[in-house]
Amino acid sequence: MGIGLTCVLLLGAVLVFLKTSPQFGGKISKNDVRIFEMSKNFKAGKFVNESPTKATPSLKDAYRILKLLSQKQENTVPTKEISVNKLSDESFAKREKVTRFTWTGHSSFLLQMAEKNILLDPMFSEVPAPHPWLGTKRFSSELPIEVANLPYIDAVIYSHDHYDHLDYETVQTLKNRVGKFYVPLGVGKHLRAWGVAKAAIVELDWWQEAVLGTITLVATPARHFSGRSVDDTNTTLWASWVLFTEQERIFFSGDSGYDSHFKRIGAAYGPFDLALIECGQYNDDLPDFPIHMYPEQTVQASLDVRAKYLMPIHWAAFKLNQHPWKEPILRLEKSAAKDSLRLVTPEIGAMVSMDALDSHRTHWWEVYE
User: Fold this and answer.
1) 212 neighbors 181 (Cβ within 8 angstroms)
2) Can you give the pTM of this predicted structure?
């Protein structure tokens, strides 16, 4: 009886949490659905990938996945905390004409382009989960700059609504100091639920463009999935992004498995001066879930979009899969060397100028185990 009562209480607590926590974001309205139905990426009430893509496990997969997750893996987190370069509060106060950026870890960037301050997938919390108990901590205890000390942000760009990219606490801190939020279709529901004004949100389908000053922003395809709760899988779209001016072109992959969309993006908008492409949180034992890329595919994706330089992202901040934490960059280096692909690998928090990319080819991870 005691065990049964405990189970009932725990189930009740979980249900209350699912229903009341703001972390889970907003709900899709009937009007949203009417808009989504005009997209060829929305079918039978869900967004879909261009190629058939298995993203969520079935009951038949449960045993296999639980077995893999229960296997002890070595070196999945650093043995000591990763240190980051600290930016002064004035670092981005002056709007330079030359594009520069700072990687704040995982897939997050503070980008200054065409005299605009832009954040890509800003996730500044300690744990990428709806509750601290449900995830592992960031590999570094500090951020390059405190969120409260960030300059005015002209635009925030999100690739999709997963917790390691779209973060509730970060939005709460930023929302009154941001000009516009650019998101894939449906992601605006979360921002509206969190108090962001509807007029400040621009939602785009794949291949749609928006203009920010002299910068053109394009939501481009990705191969992934979405969802923040148990009942909202694929009710919002996911995307990669292209940012370009007359002088420069940058590609940001968001999260994506490998597919033919990279070649089409390269044909339509390449070549790119820099490609920021995911390289981490894959699982070699689950090749039938093509929602992330192995490092060798990251290299191929960079070649497909015709990038002059590749910077690997989506690694070195959180443990979200079972591979050794340094494995993505080691495999990437080996693969990139075969194709003479130029890599950019700055330390977290280093300010990188687009006219000095070669000076940020570092091996900062070698001092960590």
Assistant:
1) no
2) 0.94
